[in-house]
């Protein structure tokens, strides 16, 4: 054992696993049971002294995507040597527009995409942003098409439109708060959520996409995808390594010609609800995720940042 390993072993003795989630969440309580024997507690914050000191070796984050304060607190935990799942610096740097570019660079098929400014940008950058050319947008993505916020989640402000007039109406609904993406609508035959854990393990679940939490998971044999199964698995792992995400649910579809398309690259806090996910899939996710947390707790690994700050843990 090296001096560095001895130092890490001594320092981790009094460290804990922190859970950032509601105490009533069923998945987090199932995870807590799987982590039995390890020091685990639920994280709370009040006024925090900065730089923040951390008693945690690992933090499981399933809340900060809703709250700026929590996002900044987790960045401080990470800079202090705590391993946060998912990396708060990766989460902060990613949106649907970035994902389209990353997927294109990785050779992953994504819908044709046009980005449109929000109202604030149009008002303040009038000399730089030209009037919108709706005909050009439609020529690029075709009709019908999908319009949605570049940083949205949970189907909020997502619209399928069939004409230029419908596109304009939908844009009026979204533009006041969000930069907007207009994307080609892929006519799919099969649709999947592919869970990726630890940047190495993948689970295919057939998914019927519906808004307002009404989507449905179905059991199916992923081997029925044939060659697409291996392509999607490989590209999902490659994508998550590039994004530096330890857990993600990537949405894929296969069109009638048998081509695989990535629809949503980024869902860093996927719903893991035992009432909606078939039991074999839920148990797989729980087992793999618990194994990931234990692996990081027993390691000296840190989240990647571009800040070059040395370990102060």
Topology:
Layout: H1 3-12, E1 16-20, H2 26-34, E2 40-42, E3 56-61, H3 68-79, E4 83-85, H4 88-93, H5 96-105, E5 113-116, H6 119-124, H7 134-141, E6 145-149, E7 159-161, H8 164-174, E8 180-184, E9 188-197, E10 201-208, E11 216-218, H9 227-243, E12 247-255, E13 260-264, H10 279-297
Parallel strand pairs: 1-2, 1-3, 3-4
Antiparallel strand pairs: 5-8, 6-7, 6-8, 9-10, 9-12, 10-11, 12-13
Helix pairs in contact: 2-10
How would you characterize this protein structure?
With 313 residues, the chain is α+β, with helices and mostly antiparallel strands. It has three domains: 3-90, Rossmann fold; 112-184, ATP-grasp fold, A domain (Dna Ligase, domain 1), CATH 3.30.1490; 187-276, D-amino Acid Aminotransferase, Chain A, domain 1, CATH 3.30.470.20. Helix content is 35%, strand content 22%. It has helices at residues 3-12, 26-34, 68-79, 88-93, 96-105, 119-124, 134-141, 164-174, 227-243, 279-297; strands at residues 16-20, 40-42, 56-61, 83-85, 113-116, 145-149, 159-161, 180-184, 188-197, 201-208, 216-218, 247-255, 260-264. α3 links the parallel β3 (56-61) and β4 (83-85). The longest helix has 19 residues, at 279-297.
């Amino acid at each position: 054992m090296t001096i560095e390993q001895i130092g890490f072993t001594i320092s981790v003795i009094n460290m804990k696993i922190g859970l950032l989630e509601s105490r009533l969440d069923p998945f987090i309580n199932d995870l807590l049971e799987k982590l039995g024997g390890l020091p685990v507690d639920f994280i709370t914050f009040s006024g925090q002294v900065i730089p923040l000191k951390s008693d945690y070796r690992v933090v499981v984050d399933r809340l900060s995507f809703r709250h700026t304060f929590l996002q900044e607190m987790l960045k401080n935990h990470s800079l202090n040597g705590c391993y946060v799942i998912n990396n708060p610096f990766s989460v902060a740097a990613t949106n649907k527009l970035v994902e389209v570019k990353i997927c294109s660079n990785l050779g992953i098929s994504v819908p044709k995409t046009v980005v449109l400014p929000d109202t604030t940008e149009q008002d303040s950058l009038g000399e730089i942003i030209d009037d919108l050319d709706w005909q050009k947008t439609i020529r690029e993505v075709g009709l019908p098409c999908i319009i949605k916020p570049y940083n949205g989640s949970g189907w909020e402000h997502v619209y399928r439109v069939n004409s230029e007039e419908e596109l304009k109406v939908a844009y009026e609904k979204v533009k006041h708060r969000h930069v907007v993406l207009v994307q080609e609508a892929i006519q799919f035959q099969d649709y999947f959520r592919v869970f990726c854990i630890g940047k190495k393990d993948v689970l295919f679940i057939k998914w019927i996409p519906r808004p307002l939490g009404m989507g449905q998971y179905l059991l199916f044999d992923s081997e029925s995808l044939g060659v697409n199964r291996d392509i999607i698995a490989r590209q999902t792992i490659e994508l998550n390594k590039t994004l530096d995400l330890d857990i993600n649910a990537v949405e894929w579809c296969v069109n009638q010609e048998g081509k695989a398309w990535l629809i949503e690259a980024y869902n860093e806090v996927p719903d893991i609800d035992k009432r909606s996910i078939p039991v074999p899939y839920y148990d797989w996710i729980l087992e793999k995720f618990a194994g990931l947390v234990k692996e990081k707790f027993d390691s000296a690994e840190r989240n990647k940042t571009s800040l070059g700050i040395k370990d102060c843990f």
